[in-house]
Design a protein that fits this description.
GO terms for molecular function: electron-transferring-flavoprotein dehydrogenase activity; flavin adenine dinucleotide binding. Belongs to the FAD-dependent oxidoreductase family. This is FAD/NAD(P)-binding domain-containing protein. By secondary structure, this protein is an alpha/beta fold. It has one domain: FAD/NAD(P)-binding domain. It contains 4 helices and 9 strands. It has a 4-stranded parallel sheet with strand order 5-2-1-9, with helices on one face. Strands 6-7-8 form a 3-stranded antiparallel sheet, with no helix packed on it. It has a two-stranded antiparallel sheet with strand order 3-4. It is elongated. The mean pLDDT is 88.
Length: 161
C-alpha cells in the first residue's frame, strides 16, 4: 500500500469484534478528504461472536453464512478499505511520527495513527481459522457436539443462554 502524503492514514490492525466495530465507527466519522482508513486482517470477514456459539452446534438457520460479515460491507458509505494480510511486526518511523505495519509477505502498510485491535485466541469452537478452513472448522465442532454424550453449560450470559 502506498500512502498519500496529503492525507493522514489511520490503520486498524485486527478485524475481530472490537476492530471491526471501531473501523465501522471511524468510517462514519472520518472525512475521506483528510483521512485514509485501512483495516488489516488475515480474513476477509469478521464473525459475529454471539451467533458463533450457535453456528458451531447446528446447521439450522445457515448461521455460518449469516454470522460472517464481509469487510467490503463494513465501511459506511464506502469510506475505508480492507487489506488482507497477517501482520508480523510494526516499524515506527520515529516516536509518535507513524510508521508501517509489516505483513508476512514483506509488504508495508503505512500509518500515521495505528490502532491495535488484535484480540485474543483460545482453543475451542470459537477460535476460527483463516477463511479457507472456516467451514471445515464449523463442521468439525458440530460433529463433536452431535457425538458428545454429555454437555455442560456454565454461565447464563449470551453464550450460555
Amino acid at each position: 500500500s502506498k500512502k498519500s502524503d496529503d492525507k493522514k492514514s489511520v490503520v486498524v490492525l485486527g478485524g475481530g469484534f472490537v476492530g471491526s466495530l471501531l473501523a465501522r465507527a471511524l468510517s462514519a466519522k472520518l472525512d475521506p478528504a483528510k483521512h485514509d482508513l485501512v483495516l488489516v486482517d488475515q480474513r476477509p470477514f469478521t464473525v459475529n461472536l454471539i451467533s458463533s456459539a450457535r453456528m458451531t452446534v447446528t446447521e439450522e438457520g445457515n448461521i455460518e453464512e449469516l454470522g460472517r460479515i464481509p469487510f467490503d460491507k463494513l465501511f459506511v458509505n464506502g469510506n475505508g478499505s480492507y487489506h488482507r494480510g497477517k501482520a508480523v511486526s510494526i516499524e515506527e518511523s520515529k516516536p509518535g511520527a507513524g510508521g508501517s505495519v509489516v505483513l508476512e509477505t514483506g509488504e508495508h502498510v503505512p500509518y500515521d495513527v495505528l490502532v491495535l485491535a488484535t484480540g485474543s485466541t483460545w482453543p475451542g469452537p470459537l477460535n476460527f481459522p483463516e477463511s479457507e478452513r472456516f467451514g471445515e472448522h464449523v463442521k468439525e465442532w458440530r460433529k463433536k457436539v452431535a457425538d458428545a454424550k454429555d454437555i455442560y453449560i456454565v454461565g447464563g450470559g449470551a453464550v450460555g443462554i
